[in-house]
Amino acid sequence: MDKKIRIIISGIGNRALPKNVNNSYWLGWVELIKRSKKFQLIAAHDVSEESIKRIVERGYLKPEYTYQNIDMMLSEVSCDAMLICNPAKFHGKTIRKALDYDLHVLVEKPFVNNIAEGREIIELNKKKGKVIACVQNWRTKDVGRLLFEFIKKGELGRIGHIFFRYIRDRENPNYPSYIFDEDYPLLYAMSIHHLDLFRYIIGDEFKYISGHSFRPHWSFYKSDTGLNLILKTKRGVTIVYSGTISSRSKIIPQESLIIEGEKGTLFNESQWLEPPLLFFPYGKNKEINLTKALKKTSIADQYNKSDNYILRNFYNSIILNKIPICTASDGLNSIVLLEASRKSFEAGKTVQINHHDFTIS
User: In which order are the strands placed within the sheet that holds 159-167?
Assistant: First the structure.
């Protein structure tokens, strides 16, 4: 039997434990850990009494293993790792607390809230030597993994350009009020998935970003909810990225991805990067469905498969010294893209990126 890793959770929100199980696109980390043969959930923390009540009433933990004070949980509970699902602005502080107790860390995206915080944590962990893995599940969904392998094998040839469109209605007045106070909500909630995926599948870093942001008059948000970006990688791949969370349509597929290479075109149109993934070979009149053999392709299936993949990868990183699919440095490079995008919006100019030093100019 595999050695079980004793894990605790900070943040029992909807991603960790869905409020409405029947309408959720994912089972949630708490349920997946319960089903896992590799992890044992020891305790959980959340400042919300309602969240704590939910995890207890559903039978995942006894009340004495739930905490509203994270320091108390860390001082009283013996464990090996922490899963961090609390709001992004608390990620850095929570990671540092986990490292103080010599815990391995799996943290939801974004890795941290800003570049300076990320650099500080990476330097701290050079002394600690713990695993810090980031949840970037667009990489681990079937389409993301197939894109990576197809491009890596040279099946697409040299990539010329990528077009991506994201259209979503996230203007829900029933959301908690803090949602509408977020800065550039599309950029931090969804673009991080997409920009990180581009870095991953093409195996290249971005050199330049130019963009602008916008917000329609009907929006409930205080910050801009749409953006247009043009990005260029070190090897010359151009990416045109456009999106909004203030769409008036709930019918149009949210995501549209086109990747053009010497040998043809890759195409995916979906809600959350689920199949099919189609390849149109150059000079041919028929497409090839690269996901034809897949059995579980629904939105929920894809979320659960990708989350399970991340848990297995985290386990192997700790037990077998494997490299996490998204390391802390890798996660920080995606944060660099977000801050570079913001700078371009606010300065109205093209910005240059040095990923090696995590700097923007």
Answer: 288-289, 278-281, 264-270, 255-261, 159-167, 238-244, 226-233, 206-214, 351-354, 359-360
Tell me the DSSP string of 134-196.
EE-TTTTSHHHHHHHHHHHTTSS-SEEEEEEEEE-B---TTS-GGGGG-SSHHIIIIIHHHHH
Question: Among candidates 8, 25, 9, which has minimal Cα distance to 304?
Answer: 25
Residue with tokens 């990416």: 239
Distances in Å between the Cα of 125 and the Cα atoms of 62, 95, 110 are 32, 10, 18
- Which whole-number Å values give the CA distances from 172 to 16, 63, 202, 245, in the listed order? 21, 33, 35, 10
pLDDT in tens, 38-63: 999 999 999 999 999 999 999 999 99
- Number of alpha helices (DSSP H) and beta strands (DSSP E) in the chain: 10, 16
Record the pTM.
0.96
Hunting for tokens 């559903």 — which residue is that?
58
Residue 8: both structure tokens together: 């605790």
Secondary structure class of 24 (helix, strand, coil): coil
Are the C-beta atoms of 186 and 173 separated by less than 8 Å?
A: no
For the chain, domains (ranges, CATH) are: 5-130 (3.40.50.720), 142-294+334-360 (3.30.360.10)
Tokens of 129: 């030597």
Characterize the bridge pairing of strands 206-214 and 81-84: unpaired
| Cβ-based burial of 336 (10 A; exposed 0-12, middle 13-18, buried ≥19) | buried
As a whole number of angstroms, the distance between CA 183 and CA 331 comes to 20
Burial 44-79 (b: 16+ CB within 10 A, else e): bbbeeeebbebbbeeebbeeebbbeebeebbeebeb
Beta pairing partners, 213: 227
Residue 107 burial (CB count, 10 A):
28
Tell me the per-residue pLDDT of 164-222, one tens digit each, with 9 for 90 and over: 999 999 999 988 888 899 999 999 999 999 999 999 999 999 999 999 999 999 999 99
Are residues 314 and 307 in contact, defined by beta-carbon separation less than 8 angstroms?
no
